[in-house]
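Exercise 7. Given the components listed, write out the predicted structure of the assembled complex. Treat all entries as one system.
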Amino acid sequence: MNDVGYTRRLSPSTRAALGVFARYGTIIGLLVMILVFSFLSPHAFPTFNNFINVLSQASLAMIIAGGLTMAVIVGELDLSVGYAASLHGVLVTGLIVANHLPIPVAVVIELALGALIGVVNGVIVTKLKVNSVIATLGVGTVLVGLSFAYSAGVPIVSGVPESFLQLALGRWLFGIPNPIIFMALVFGGLWLLVERTAIGQEIQAVGGNPAAARLAGINVDRIKILGFVLSGMCAALTGTLLAARLGSGTTNAADSYLLTAFAAVFLGSATLRDGEFHILGTLIGTLIIVLGFNGLNIFGAPTYSQFMFQGAILIVAVGLASLGRSLAES
Amino acid sequence: MAVPPAVPFVAASAIGKSYGGAQALRDAALCVLPGEVHGLVGANGAGKSTLIRILAGLTQPDTGEIAIEGRPARIASPHEASGLGMSFIHQELAFVPDMTVLENIMLGLPKKTRLGLVDWAAIQRDVAPIVERVGITAPLDAPAKRLSTAENWLISIARALVWKARLIVMDEPTASLSAGECRKLFSIIRGLSASGVAVLYVSHRLDEILDLCGRVTVLRDGRSVAVLDGPELTRRRLVQAIVGGAVEHLPKARDAAPGEVILSVRGLRRLPRVAEASFDLRRGEVLGLGGLVGAGRSELARLLYGADRPDAGGMTIEGRPFAPRSPAGAVRAGLGLVPEERRMEGLLLGKSIAFNLSLGNLTPLLASPVLPFISPRKRARLAQATIHDLSIKARSPEQPVGRLSGGNQQKVVIGRWLRSKPKILILDEPTRGVDIGARGEIHRLIRALARDGMAVLVISSEPDELPDLCDRVLVMAEGRIVRELAGAGLTRSAIIEASYAATEERVSA
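Answer.
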């Protein structure tokens, strides 16, 4: 029946133009930004070194955003990622400095802990049926408390071994910084998982229409928990790499990644696909944000402008995403 | 037919309305006199809801005229309908659970003081007599969600009276009321009628119609075929008019005798909608599940499919106990479902045909048996094959499924189960909103699946569909299977009569 009579009719050419804007707007924005910065600062911005630097800096945000993408693809939000990453940074430093665990063991423990936090988030959301915004905000706040309880709020600085710092500062193949390699592995893995595996198809189905997925015989709860687990593991990796880069385990160090990751994920959903979250989109979304920060830095823009940039871009991102969705549905 | 003695409150004539290719109303007329209780009956799909939607201003008729108190009227919106003095109370009551009784009664009609604030004192004064008249005993400041369904009906009626309605349309008012609550509602309806408010009473329950209504309009196939009153208004005449003298389709010769019992259901219950269901489903047969809307058929299907758990009773598949805890469990045990709401529950509209076809059945797409990766090429090839087999009209397997027509979307949902070959396939309203051509193709497809040995259960509210399609039909009413029809006894009118017979038995019992 057609009783929804209030959809505004757009002319086909307007729709087509809006559609192109919604799908390619972010990529066009990225290219324009690169051109403008290159033009204004031809010696500092468009250099190979700056690019590698920016990408290396961006890698941590990208990894956490990649994980968050998995949570939003299954149709939930994970607000605990920033706080979780901070806790992981404190814990991994503590495990290495105070408990003298070998670095690989400490990292594996962190990843397992990240997965566990994901399971907790997922079970609260699917079994206790708590809205994911509330559930992950609550879990995240508990994690902040744990972090303070463990470190008493004092950064763990002394006794951090050089080999741990190398995790983030070292370079590997052809002198590519390690974080970029970690980021590439994470994105390659997540992309394969979502786009090319059977589980990935189920992940997309659960996010797209949970009712249809359930009736098609998919275990919706399990897939949602998996989304939170991947999100939690990526937060653990980001937290660990950040601690290695800073050379310390500091409470709150990674909190601000939450906003960056959200902006990146929503910008990504407005990229190439009509408001649908996907891995490649998140990659491009993070690049836009990080290059934007980098440009602002090079021009010596004051700190407050960076906050304004980040807030504005989050709103623009969500706006673009919902524009794409409404065009796709009409 | 009696000549109306006064100017009718509503007089609609020669109303026609089609949705897409389907003609919902052809030549419908309705005449409701001031202060009368008028019945509106007809089988599922006869056009009752469409006629009501037109009166309510929710949809516009293609042809015909409507006059309110003798003056021609165009009802362009629900707002205009209430302005003309008509009020509509639907099965699913529209009220705000967290607001109080009084707030719900006054919803959308705030009395304001000079400062623009809501004048609750004036409201209390005005509403008190109305509340008394409809017999609301709950305190006016109680939250509406704490009241029973029956009391919420009273709120809706009070709201209609506050709006100064001259005609209140009630759609299946007793569907979820107890016997005592029904009696109370009936006495209120009689009171309304005595005070000059007309009631249009829409119901499948003929005993209530006979009890309450002075005159009854019968719709069949979008036409008003009879207006009965006085001595003509009997159950016999009503059923005759509802069923009509339509030419029966001859039952078709079936391909082969059905095989052994594959699904056995005993004493399945989940109140309030499923009271008791026992039946067997055999390999290679198409079993129909008929009955009126609300008889409990979809709810029974949900039990079979593990979407809900039964309160009592049990099932076996091929002799082994079967108690699915989720749809995933039912699928593992060999069931497939084509749900009623295909756009909401069957498909991911933004995704491609290929994606939707492979949903829930991904093993054939794996590139190799050892690695977990799926091959896009295999997926495209399998999708192309299914598109060809089902003659789905699409440009490519990558086309978004949301852009297909209803019939082709339905074929995609059915096509999903073609490769995984479940033992049992349940189809809920498989041809609703599907054009005639696609409908025939879907029917042939269902027959072909049964011929290949699948056991098929088809739920349909269209009286014509089941005799054409099924080997055997179970008729459900009030949550029970009340009749089994097969062979020469399997006709359209037998299904309709069984659906109504049961509601009468319930009351006389």
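Discussion: The mean pLDDT of chain A is 88. The longest helix of chain A spans residues 12-40.
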